[in-house]
Amino acid sequence: MAPQLTLEPARLLQLVVSINTHDPIKIQCKVNQFLREETGASAVFCVIYCRDREDLFCQVVNQTTLPLEERLPADHPLLGGALRSPSPLFLPGVRLSELSSAVAAAAGVDSDSDSDSGGGLLVVSASWGDATQPGLLVCLAGRAAPFAMEDALLVRHVLGHVFGTLMHAVTSAEAQRVQLQCRSLLRVAQSIFRHIGDVTVLLRDIMTQARNLTGAERCSLFLVDKRTNELVAKVFDVADDAEQIEEIRLPMVTGIVGSVAASGELLNIRDAYAHPLFYRQMDENTGFRTRNILCFPIKDDKEVLGVAELCNKVTGPHFTRFDEEAARAFAIYCGIALVNSFMYRKIMDTQERVQLSNELMMYHMQVSREETDQLCAENTGSVARYSSSFTAWEYFPRDLEERRWPAAVLAMYEDLGLVHRFGIERSTLARFVLMVRKGYRDPPYHNFSHAYSVAHFAYLMLKNLQLVESRCLDDLESLSLLTACLCHDLDHRGTTNSFQVASRSVLASLYSSEGSVMEQHHFAQSVCILNTDGCNILSELPPKDYTQCLDMVRGMILATDLSRHLSIMTELEAMASGGYRSCEPRHRRLLHSLLMTAADLSDQTKRWLSSKKAAKLVYREFFSQGDMEKQMGNDPSEMMDRERAFIPKLQIQFLDDIALPVYSLMGSLFPACEEVYAQTKANRRCWQRMADICSRRNATNVQSIDVFDNERLDEEVLASDGESNSVQCATAPPGGSTVANSRLSSLRPYVSGVLPCCVSKNEVME
């Protein structure tokens, strides 16, 4: 005889009326409470089957809504069998915590004692009308008496009246969820498409939106560099912000990110440290602890463009399938945005380069064949024909007649043996030098006169320090150094990097994202000249040497950016202290940078009157920029302001903080350079004496460049130099002081105003 139902029709009708809502949570709460009252179970909950994801989820236990949906696999060992079976499932003695700890906690059941109730677990299934599609499971637990068939029939009878309402509410909620997801994705798309003009900003926005969309703690975004077969990250997510750092490059096969880049498939990893591909080194380097990861590719219609890696789900124990869906949809928008951004950047670069090329073509004239032939015909001979002291440290190369400078450059290449060693045609070298001269504009200081002077000091170092003979450098490095010095300020505009950026110039548009705006441009112009017909002095080099030479020239030109010099100062001091080791590639690169800086500052090493003559040109150029800044409505810094600059003080600070430490290092590495260091210290004493004289006369407000045109003041400075220990004791700090850290704060206010050779390149205070 079949068990009899004791359910009162009036109560069931009341339940059916009460669930007239589209909220599946409210419906489940009422159904759960009704079944608890009718069966005496202490825990009742519905487990719903999701057809799209093919898994199970639970939202409510009794009348308690779970903070996060509890998701279970469709083949769950306890529930999988009941899902497609019309018969109820009785599981006596099964703990609720064995099913789910989250469900047990919501039911208020002690996981250590929930099996003592004796009732076990009752699972009743309900399906859609055709019985082929599973719908939901109703689970009852926590009753002293065992569950019986009449309990199962009661549950099934109730489900016959509420199943349709509940499942339609679940379907409606899912549709609303999808609609909200679409709206969110549209807002995300609208946001990221606003930034296609700036890849860096776009990457930051993609990371922020991905993190917000999935509830992640951190996000990293790597772009694929097909040229080097590497993954590149320039922006990292830090807390609630994105931080620009020195780019990180990883081999394409590295870790989870590399696997996703190679396969093009999403990975959802619940336990990062248990995954064999997890790259632990990143956590060790950053101190961040990764718990779980959602990593997805960003693709166009052909290939993977990048990989986004989301770490640590904040609103749950791990990333869900819903997060996977959101990530896949989001990745489509990201791919479109990145492709458009790259295309936009290429178009803008092309337009800006065309504009720059037109500007250069209008400004520069081509070198005529007559000029080249005339220079080739000149008998350069020995360098001594230009001056008997041409190879002396104190020789001031600007004293030579300007028309003879190109011939003197040819003589330096020949005297160092570079023409013979590398098979450079004399006509090619002549045309190259003339093109370089044409490539310089005519600002007061950063013109060909400065380039010629810097190249001359490089020649002095190569010759007097015997850098090649002592194997500190090889012949190719010697060629690179002299060429880099000659080209290091090509097409200089007489303004600083910060001015270029502030005025939004074409150069800033092209190079500001790479840093060292002017230095990047100087190198680009060097390559343009080398690529000009009849000007390539490197044409006879083997391909490997050609590439290496260009790489060294680029590194040397970029080394004239003062911020780069300060960033390696600690390493330079360590090298000087421990000794130069030519077998170490890093030591060779450090020496390249030091030699370039020493050459670039070499006006500071000449005798007082010559050094002061060069400084006057510097300040004329700086004050010209200051005047332009005032016209733009900006307030120039002290060294750019002809009305505020007190030049002796600025020069002393510059010598103390920049020049003297450089030549102290040179003297430590090469004893033959002590003479250069001594002369620089003597110049420092002269500037100090000038400052003292002005102070005694209450003339610290000497305006602009008046100090350069006062012959009586010069006589007084030279007559007084060395008279008293008060001047001597004010000399620069002993060699080896750490500029990069201890002196940087004092350097910021004035460094750009006093550096004749590299200040106007990249002001440290920027």
UniProtKB/TrEMBL annotation:
Enzyme kind, highest EC tier: hydrolase
A Pfam short name: PDEase_I
CDD domains per UniProt: HDc
SUPFAM superfamilies: GAF domain-like, HD-domain/PDEase-like
Binding residues annotated for AMP, in chain numbering: 446-450, 489, 600, 651
EC number annotated for this UniProt entry: 3.1.4.-
Biological processes, Gene Ontology terms: signal transduction
Record note on cofactor: Binds 2 divalent metal cations per subunit. Site 1 may preferentially bind zinc ions, while site 2 has a preference for magnesium and/or manganese ions.
InterPro entries for the chain: GAF, GAF-like_dom_sf, HD/PDEase_dom, PDEase, PDEase_catalytic_dom, PDEase_catalytic_dom_sf, PDEase_CS
Record: residues binding Zn(2+) 2: 489
GO molecular function terms attached to this record: 3',5'-cyclic-nucleotide phosphodiesterase activity; metal ion binding
Binding site for Zn(2+) 1: 450, 488-489, 600
Ranges for domain PDEase: 367-694
Names of the cofactor(s): a divalent metal cation
SMART domains, per database record: GAF, HDc
Active-site residues, Swiss-Prot/TrEMBL: 446
UniProt keyword list: cGMP, Hydrolase, Metal-binding
Similarity comment: Belongs to the cyclic nucleotide phosphodiesterase family.
Full protein name: Phosphodiesterase
Upper taxonomic lineage: Eukaryota, Metazoa, Ecdysozoa, Arthropoda, Crustacea
